[in-house]
Amino acid sequence: MWANEGIYVWAAEAATGKVLFLTAVERICSYNSGLFFLPDGKGLGFTPLIKSISKPFVIGHGRAEQAGRVQSRRRLRLRLQTSPAAAEEPQAGRRHFLTVMTIARSLQPLLFALFVCLAGSLRADSVRFQDQIKPLLDQKCISCHGPDKQKGGLRLDSRAAVLKGGEHGPALVPGDGQKSILLQAVRHATKDLAMPPKEKLPAKDVAAIEAWVRDGAPWPEPVAVLFEDEAEFLAALTSGNGRARLVLDDVFRGKAALGVTPLQREGVKIPGWNFEVRERPTAGQVRFMRFAWKKRGGGSVMIELARSGAWPDAKDPKGRYVAGPNTTGWAATSVGDAAPTTWTVVTVDLWKDLGNCTLTGLAPTCDKGEEALFDSVILGPDVAGLDAYAPGTGQRALKVASPTRALGDAWTDPENPVRKIWRGERLDLWSLKAPVRPAVPGAGVPSAKSAPGSKGGIGSKVSPLKTENWPLTTSSNPIDRFLLAKLAERKLTFSPEADPRTLIRRLYFDLVGLPPTPEEVQAFVRDASPRAYEQLVDKLLGSPRYGERWARHWLDVVRYADTNGHERDEFRPEMWRYRDYVVRSLNADKPYDRFIREQVAGDELLSSPPKTATEADALIATGFLRLGTYDSTASIFQEDRKQRNDLMADLVNTTGSAFLGLTFSCCNCHDHKYDPLTQADHFRFRAFFAAVKSRDDLPIDLAPEQDAIKAHNAAVDKQVAEATKAADEALSSARQKLRDERIAKLPADIQELLKTDEAKRDDATKKKLAPHLEKLKVADKDAVAALDEAGKKLHAAAAANVDTLKQQKRAFTVAMAASDGNAEPTKLFYQGDFTEPRDEVQPGFLSVLDPNPAKVNPPPSGTTGRRLALAEWIASPANPFTARVLVNRLWQHHFGAGLFANPNDLGYAGPKPTHPELLDWLATEFVARGWSVKAMHRLMVTSAAYRQVSGYESARVRASESSAVRKPSLSHPHTLAPSPAADPENKLLWRQNPRRLDAETMRDTLLAVSGKLRPHAGGKPLWPPLPDEILKAQPGVLEGLEGKDSGRRQGWYADKEDDCDVRSLYLIQKRCVPLPFLQVFDLPDTSFSCARRDVTTVAPQALNLLNSDFSQRAAKALAARVATEAGDDTGKQIERAVWLALGRAPAANERQQATAFLAKHGQTALSEFCRALLNVNEFMYVD
Amino acid sequence: MNTFLNSKPTQPSRRDFMLRCGGGAGALAMSALLAGSARGQNFSQNRRIDLMNPLAPRQPHFAAKAKRVLWLFQYGAPPSMDLFDYKPELHKLHGKPVPDSIKSIKDKVGGVFNSSKNELAAGPWKWAQHGRCGAWVSDLMPHTAKHVDDLCFIKSLHCESSNHAPATYQMNTGVILGDRPSVGSWLTYGLGSENQNLPGFVVLFQVGGFGGTANWSNAFLPAAFQATKFRHEGEPVFNLKPPAELAGTQRATLDLIQSFNKTHRDARPGLLDLDGRIAAYELAYRMQSEALDVGDLSGESAATLELYGVNDPKRIKAQYGRQCLLARRLLERGVRVVQVYQGVDKYGWDGHDNNKEYAERNAHQTDQATAALLTDLKRRGMLDDTLVVWAGEFGRTPMLQGGAGRNHNPYGFTGWLAGGGVRGGHSVGATDAIGLRAEQDPKSVKDFHATILHAMGLANDDLFFEHNGRPERLTGVAGTAKVIREAFA
């Protein structure tokens, strides 16, 4: 639809008027002082130019004949123009551009004006409605479809009523003339629906209604802020000395008025109030206020307005309107001399009085004497609007009961709240629709060799290929089919298969994050079996190292760290259990849907203490909910609520990013600017987490063990009680003696009172005795002192017995995890500000898909079931995001870039997938294979696409150079040459992407090749020694090191250096002191979800790898290893060193250079040579 | 993209390998589009970063006087009312409770009243007016007082947390959570650096700020814009040099590495990362000498060393002087941003139980070198294009805490700016009568940041980086920051 009726925008240089750019966009949003454009249907467009928060508005579809209406807002004049650029875009060539309007405003520094071609600005819209549409409706329709009569169940006196419609359904669909019954009616299209029935409207009126509907049926209305018939306002009156009541017998209009006694004060911020006062109001803005008031007896009456959350200054008359004798001396603007004793309507021009401002609250007030009555306070953009205001039709400023009917999704229901973001359009965001399994391209695929992905019956579903350029291939892997089909469109095909040495290194680094040994490389190169590659893949996927490698990727996504962050950055002694859980889960190929359920709601899956290791893992998995930063000092300054707000927002953002690839952070404060996420959605998501209870002590022992521990401890407790009793008895005589002595010293009357039985003492007695009773308590140490020697001995033995027994108690094994408590009500925070709570929200999913509260059924675990409901929704095959996001993450790590480029952003701003069909095929395949991550790895890495060379054009040369005995197992006759020019960024994957090792893999590889890598199987993190100077970056660490942290574990607890030669995964991750060697190689920040690490090249990386202690140690160890393994012969040493570091034999020229180097540099030569090898690009990059 | 730009695909070139983090086709297209217009790079998009040389200088949005920034970070929170914010009324109310009119105001940020005594205290120091402008400075800062005609005091700063770590994070990164790039990272992202042989953003500290490295983190910006810690003792940068026994072979080792690298690269034409890394090793080699040169103070005159107090018998004072002198040497060589944490110990200015002791220790140990920097920059003609910033995470309360301490005060505190086009001898904003809350022209941390960017020729609303689908800015997406224009001449 938009293609023919869209808004056309171009940008032009202010100085010259030269048009630089022309395209069609569907929507233009304005911010306070800027504009931004949204992408058109082809995914082309701008990044938003957000200047400030304000409500986006939609501009109607432009039409040539409306062009004359556009008015200039700023100095640049309007002109008609046919863009010269139009011809360059085939579709645009047919369009006719008529009007240019500048909306430059505060963009002056940019010296860049934006000219917007549009037909009908918002102002024009409102004029049209007031001038043309409203009179038409009033004169021609309301008599049958209004407050008096509702023929056909239809009312046409408010927008809501029109949209609701009558017997025939909604009277109109904003923006859609075809579906609007109202238009059919006024056109007299069908006989039984011809309206008005007797006379057809003149053509110009019909056209006006058509244009109005097409523009989204704007219905500017005054904003009613106080309702005649509502008690809500009354309930909102929370402060002040006066009292307010509903008055039912004396009203201006409607059913009730508000009666107030003196000094009534409403809050400066009324929920939902944020009315901008402007000289020329646009949608949602106002200028005039009208109110009706009266006084029941003498004195003055006043209405006071709060602006921007504050009352007027005490001396400033602006913002207060008063009538009657101002007996109290209020600084106020008088709007009437006499106290109004009959209902008096006052209209004031707020803009004239106050200038541009934002009204946030209101207080009706009167002086002493009888109460004042207030009724019908309304705000509006113009006086005409106020005049036209019909009671009950205005926008309600205060909360009204939510609609009881169930809302439909945004595809079908115009009342879905998401529609306000896009006005019901543009909801066809690809990622909102569940993936539909596409057919695999390619006909006649040989089925004898079954494709790795053939389990889902792909072979039978392949559709005939439509292109003639299909290259011959023996690969039946559907991944290759999809990729080749796209490549063929550009007359491209795959590059040749990489040589075996490259392949084995690629597979090792990709799947286990470590290099193959020289022997493994040689064996693989020699292995002529046709299944050698697949066997290697299986071997690596079966290796425990696989889980360690891929856990790191997941830990990035969930922002794992071992400390709290912030001022104290305390160690979390049990957090590592979550890290090991991730490793275990990956190694076990735990189905991803289970992996999700465990992390989001593992505790809710269990109804009793865990009975199996798997169940215990479900509890450990809830550590996911604890991974955010935590400031333990917040409570000192009563910032707990703020902290909780931050934690909850963080949890929502991370859950959205990690599992769904959605950006929730924007809509913490406001509706998303261009993605279909409302602010309410953020809080609906929060509500799922409302009952999360942090547990640092969650027992994870299996049930029998827990029972045994409990039984044991109960027995010990019993013994302790007995022993304590014995120790106490040893003291009893001394205690009684001391007590008696003390009583004897008390005044006689008190002594007398003490004789009354404790149970029979009255209140007066108790009160009198209280100060003395405290003194009569005998402390143990006093009693002990009073014992004789024998008694002392006896008591000491008894006390020692108590201590010994206490030590026999056994502790549970605990995890830093979460459980479920009471769900606090979740309230939406105005602009994300936790001090501005608004409506309560219920747990719910994305409104765009389902705007109704989620069904939450308490599970057998006895928990609220909230997180479980969320987990089930995320882990559902029907969820449009989950499977796509995960397969894309896998793809990214195997191919260097995702099928959609930003794996944490599936919204409009994120680039569209390069291969949408492949993505959907993979997503559905993933679900079909029981969410098996390893199956997806296997599918990806066995594809021909994965096995290509990564170079540009040298592929064949290097392939032939290789010492491969085994021929590449897949062959692609190259009728089409790979060509960088056709796809320079390799988006279509005509070659593999080379990659630099990430920080941890780099370090692990240094350890591995030098022979220093220690086998390690998880557990508590290891702390490599660091220089004091680095630790001093965080004062809190010093406090810990000096033992001044009250046992909070703020310090750095260095282990022996050699003990730390384990995989980097197992090293401490302290938020405020990241390990320098890893940090310099682009370690991600641990505060937020990281989907894709940067790869930067900076000099400090070189300095680290050349000079750091760690590198030096690795180089020396490698040299020692080489000397041991190769003996004294220089040639053999060079051979071995290159094999160990790079997995290949040295080339002739390298051998030569190395020989010369070793000859020249004496004793340190070999370790220097090794240091050089550990620094070469080939060491850091995987082809 | 092609129809959008009407451009034809070309061979990959270095320029094509710009950093595009999340901006996608739109961001690329827009920046490419604007590259053609006269001052197109002023537009609100990711800055064009050449991956081969991420620190290459970039044009500011508009011409500005300041070319570099030096921030003397007063961590631990100095007591404004004892240094620069003279409050005669506080002296009158010494020993009295806080007036009800002030106490009854409800603050959004945590409750410092709850953990403070209801007793006002003026410091024991003497106040006098200085310079032509007649600015009041207490005798805690006698050296700095001589420079008041070059300083612009912002006396109405306020921040969003009364806790050290969040407030330090906010002062450095704009938000209290510590997950954003620091001001220095934003500036080097925006402007690159003038010296390619040194890092573009350097921090110096004896003890860092509360919250640690996140205060000078690049966060989601590329690592090229992270801070490098410069040391005031020993080799200037960690891992700058190999152990002594290898010093002689360093060049030969490097040559061997580069020889392997060239063979490797020649077999992989078009993979520009490889060129970048080859260049990085050469840069590292040059940095070894350049950084050593910066750290070598032997060329400085005795008078200069004296000026900074480098040889002062008080060890901490001497170290701070050395750091300030190093800062000048770094700035002189074109480093874009230098941040010196003035912390003399792990508490900085954080005098909770004995304000006098903390204030005197910190003032005495930093005042001379701070003033020396101003003198030295000025006489070298560098003050005109160097923006000097003096501020901590917040201030302290006029009420007592504990015995004789002052509590945290996020509601109103003083920082100052100098040089770089700043209007000297001037004050902006004011706190209430007792120095507790910013009352006149309150300035948020966002305003303060916008002002620093502005001084450097960057429009805060236009300095963007796309991250996780969101266009991030130092001053936030809400667009509420306002440049403190009164601070400029």
Task: Explain how this protein is built.
The complex is a heterodimer of chains A (1183) and B (489). Chain A has 40 helices and 26 strands. With 1183 residues, chain A is α+β, with helices and mostly antiparallel strands. In chain A, helix 17 packs across helix 18. Chain A is flat, with a radius of gyration of 38 Å. Chain B has 489 residues and is of the alpha/beta class. Chain B has 14 helices and 17 strands. In chain B, helix 9 runs antiparallel to helix 10 and helix 12 runs parallel beside helix 13. Chain B starts with a helix and ends in a 16-residue tail after the last strand. Chains A and B meet through strand 2, helix 19, helix 33, helix 34 and helix 35 of A and helix 2, helix 7, helix 9 and helix 10 of B.
Query: What percent of residues of chain B are in strands?
Result: 15-25%
Write down how many β-strands of chain B occur, each being a DSSP E stretch of 2 or more residues: 17
Structural class of chain B: alpha/beta
What is the β-strand count of chain A? 26
Helix content range of the residues of chain B, please? Answer: 25-40%
Identify low-pLDDT runs of chain B: 1-44
Radius of gyration of chain A: 38 Å
What are the key terms here?
heterodimer, A: 1183 residues, alpha+beta, five-stranded mixed sheet, 36% helix, disordered N terminus, B: 489 residues, nine-stranded mixed sheet, 14 helices
Report a brief summary of the structure.
The complex is a heterodimer of chains A (1183) and B (489). By secondary structure, chain A is of the alpha+beta class. In chain A, 36% of the residues lie in helices and 10% in strands.
What secondary-structure arrangement, pairings included, does this model have?
The complex is a heterodimer of chains A (1183) and B (489).
Chain A: H1 2-5, E1 7-12, E2 19-25, E3 28-31, E4 34-37, E5 101-102, E6 113-117, H2 122-141, H3 159-164, H4 181-186, H5 203-214, E7 223-224, H6 232-236, E8 239-240, E9 244-247, E10 257-260, E11 264-265, E12 275-277, E13 288-295, E14 301-307, E15 320-323, E16 333-336, E17 344-349, H7 350-354, E18 357-366, E19 372-380, H8 383-388, E20 395-396, H9 419-422, H10 458-461, H11 478-489, H12 500-511, H13 518-526, H14 532-542, H15 544-557, H16 576-587, H17 592-601, H18 613-621, H19 640-660, H20 679-688, E21 692-699, H21 703-744, H22 748-754, H23 763-776, H24 780-786, H25 789-807, E22 814-820, E23 826-829, E24 837-841, H26 866-874, H27 882-895, H28 916-928, H29 933-941, H30 955-961, E25 995-996, H31 999-1009, H32 1028-1031, H33 1035-1041, H34 1076-1080, H35 1099-1107, H36 1109-1126, H37 1130-1142, H38 1148-1160, H39 1165-1173, H40 1177-1180, E26 1181-1182
Parallel strand pairs in A: 7-20, 15-16
Antiparallel strand pairs in A: 1-2, 1-6, 3-4, 5-6, 7-19, 8-11, 9-10, 10-19, 12-18, 13-17, 13-19, 14-15, 14-18, 21-22, 23-24, 25-26
Helix pairs in contact in A: 2-5, 12-13, 12-14, 14-29, 15-16, 17-18, 17-26, 21-24, 21-25, 27-28, 27-29, 35-36, 36-37, 36-39, 37-38
Chain B: H1 2-5, H2 24-35, E1 68-73, H3 80-83, H4 88-92, H5 100-103, E2 127-130, E3 135-138, H6 142-145, E4 151-158, H7 164-173, H8 183-191, E5 201-205, E6 228-230, H9 250-266, H10 272-295, H11 302-308, H12 315-332, E7 337-341, H13 355-379, E8 386-391, E9 395-401, E10 405-409, E11 413-418, E12 426-428, E13 430-431, E14 438-440, E15 443-444, H14 445-455, E16 464-467, E17 470-473
Parallel strand pairs in B: 1-7, 1-8, 4-12, 4-15, 5-6, 5-7
Antiparallel strand pairs in B: 2-3, 4-11, 8-11, 9-10, 13-14, 16-17
Helix pairs in contact in B: 9-10, 12-13
